[in-house]
Amino acid sequence: MCGLSGEIRFDGRTADIGAVGRMTDAMHERGPDGSGLWSLGPVALGHRRLKIIDLSEKAAQPMVDSALGLTAAFNGCLYNYRELREELRGRGYRFFSSSDTEVLLKAFHHWGPDCVERFKGMFAFAIFERDTGRLTLARDRMGIKPMYLTRDAGRLRFASSLPALLAGGGVGGDIDRVALHHYMTFHSLVPGERTILAGVRKLPPATVRTVEADGTTRDRRYWRPPYTRSALPEYAGMGADDWREAVLERLRAAVRRRMVADVPVGVLLSGGLDSSLIVALLAEEGQEGLSTFSIGFQPAGGLAGDEFVYSDLVAERFGTRHHRLRVEDAWLVPALERAVRAMSEPMASHDCVAFHLLSEQVAKHVTVVQSGQGADEVFAGYSWFPPLAGVAREQAAAVYAREFFDRQHEAMAEILSPEYLIGEDASGAFVRRHLAAPGAETALDAVLRLEVEAMMVDDPVKRVDNMTMAFGLEARTPFLDHDLVELAAACPPELKLASGGKGVLKDIARKLLPAEVVDRTKGYFPVPAVRHVDGPLLELVRDALNAPAARARGLFDRSYVARLLDAPNEHRTPVGVNVLWHLGLLELWLQAQGVR
How far is CA 353 from CA 31, 87, 334, 401, in A? Predict the structure, then answer.
């Protein structure tokens, strides 16, 4: 797990190694164990290294294989790199390191860009071919590892974070108005290729982009699981018990794969079903002395601030080395400001500050953790999924909008300044296009596909990556193992919706976990002081929305902002997001990143 950056020019000039160096330096936290730069004519690559596999300098990046004519910058982990290395050795390749980066290089040489289909892991990479001048960019199936891009007529730049691209220079501060519409509709996430800045895009998940020396590009999407039963005859005739056993076996394999490391692996243990299942399966694998980590906050506004009672139960059951972090109120605002600076894009979820604070402590003990993110999207654990049961496909978009959207298109005129309004419902159109695509059998199947392919990538997945990597901590997410996701996509919706959601996982867990954990009311990372905006946090938000930069930018209607500030906790979206925090976070992020 690291950070990569680079530039390729199309105008006959040499690559700007200074800009690539600034981008690389901006990602120091992602890779505190080493740094490297490489350039050849129109191409330059940069890398920050976090040592996880092959701790020697033989695994340093950018990695050059002169015999093959390839240079790579790689972020992530190939969990099956050992098996691939043995296969490639059998095909005549010789290795100078024991790293997964070198396996990536050899695999690319042997199979070309199709090598991605053989990888089991999380990854974003850039590979330059010396003899053709071609650059290949790729991202893993679930979009766990990020890649941001900015392009003009003369060059393409890319990096593992948006702030790194800003550090390279040449990125304007114009707001993408369609992305702003998404931000205001989808609880701050911007799905698809857009970002909140008009000059920056994202490489989509499960995509290989080939960039020729003359600047022409082509994309290939290499993975998209069908959300149907009929298209997968191997699952025909499976009963509920068969599905439970199949899911359990895939989850076991996913957890086992993510134990691959040359450093200790811990678990972020919230006390919820998902992280508790990971602990149980690691114990089943014989993992001894496992370190687990939980976080709690002071109560506020009548909301509890921790779930230690559940995480303690799991830690005691499996004999883990458990660490509890209780956050004092005085720590919150400084931590929140640091968390905002660590965001590649603005993210309003109050989970961010929890992950940021927890990651800071966890990184003092381990370098790799497993985490339960993704289970709710993959196995239908959220409140907006049950209303879709039995709904006709043509009604799916309307039901999803009612249950999930923060607000409808018409409400934007009350909130945004006129110059930031758009004439069409871009967010509704995005959802309708996605749900109408072939390959989903029911309304719920279509919405789960939307969540997994688009919404999840730019909310919980990005949140975990940003907050853990701010402290050089690698987070691995077994519920996003692509083999498990493929199986879950085919799993009958009624098995996922059972027991109030995630029914198939709950059935599995009943044989592994305390009943109190399985049957508890669904919880979230509790940060009451962010959900209930008051005291120093309210002043922070007030200052951000009234700052000269905010007034000059003029994103929001001033009278609407004033109403929110007068009643900071009375305005909430249908899923409970504090509207004042939603707006304030965007300005906090823009100001923290120096966007003008």
Answer: 21, 43, 10, 28
